[in-house]
Amino acid sequence: MSYAYDDQNIFAKILRGEIPNNTVLETEHTLAFRDIAPKAPDHVLVIPKGPYVTFDHFCNTASEAEIVDFTRAAGQICKMIGAEPGAGGEGFRVISNAGEDGVQEVPHYHLHILAGRPLGPMLL
Ligand code: 5GP
Predict the structure, then answer these.
(1) Nearest 5°: phi and psi at 13?
(2) Rg of the chain over CA atoms, in angstroms?
(3) d(CA 35, CA 114)
(4) What is the mean pLDDT of the chain?
(5) Site residues for ligand 1, CB cut-off 6 Å
(6) Is the pTM here over 0.95, yes or no?
(7) CA distance 24 to 63
(8) If you measure from the C-alpha of residue 68 to the centroid of ligand 1, how many angstroms do you get, rounded to a whole number?
(9) Residues classed as catalytic
């Protein structure tokens, strides 16, 4: 499957520094920042710096270095916000929306990390 990446999407603009963001963590291949409309006390978006549209696109075309960096950064954020159960936190939820059925608003691959309150059942 091929994906057309729209470099005018909001996260691409954030990566280019054209729109400000509230950065939580930046690594070589990953940027994590707070969601502008948080759905929980902690709502962090984790994005790869490369031009990927969805989970599938990222997993199947990014380099191993990018995937490792991204995955470790996401894990680090769970600890940084105090949500990692293995580190004394109360837990969190990770979501990635893709395409129309997934109601993906921004066509740049990202994870939502939600924490800071009981999140209820997963189905909306
Ligand atoms: P999606 O539906 O694509 O999975 O989620 C996109 C998320 O990006 C939404 O939760 C929305 O609030 C967030 N968002 C949209 N525009 C901006 C922005 O300019 N800055 C930040 N920090 N988040 C944004």
Answers:
(1) -65, -40
(2) 14
(3) 10
(4) 96
(5) 10, 19, 21, 33, 35-37, 45, 97, 103-106
(6) yes
(7) 23
(8) 24
(9) 110
Note the pLDDT tens digit of each residue in 30-49: 999 999 999 999 999 999 99
Ligand 1 mutation target, pool 6, 15, 23, 45, most atoms within 8 A of CB? 45
| 113 pLDDT higher than 70 | yes
List CB contacts of 117: < 8 A, sequence separation 6 or more.
Answer: 40, 41
**Number of residues that this document lists for the chain:** 124
Query: Per residue in 53-86, pLDDT tens?
Result: 999 999 999 999 999 999 999 999 999 999 999 9
Domains of the chain: 10-115 (3.30.428.10)
The CB-based long-range contact list for 5-13 (8 Å cut-off, 24+ gap) reads 5/51, 5/52, 5/53, 5/107, 5/108, 6/107, 7/51, 9/106, 9/107, 9/108, 10/106, 10/108, 11/45, 11/47, 11/106, 11/108, 11/110, 12/51, 12/108
Sheet of 111-115, strands arranged across: 23-26, 30-34, 42-48, 111-115, 92-95
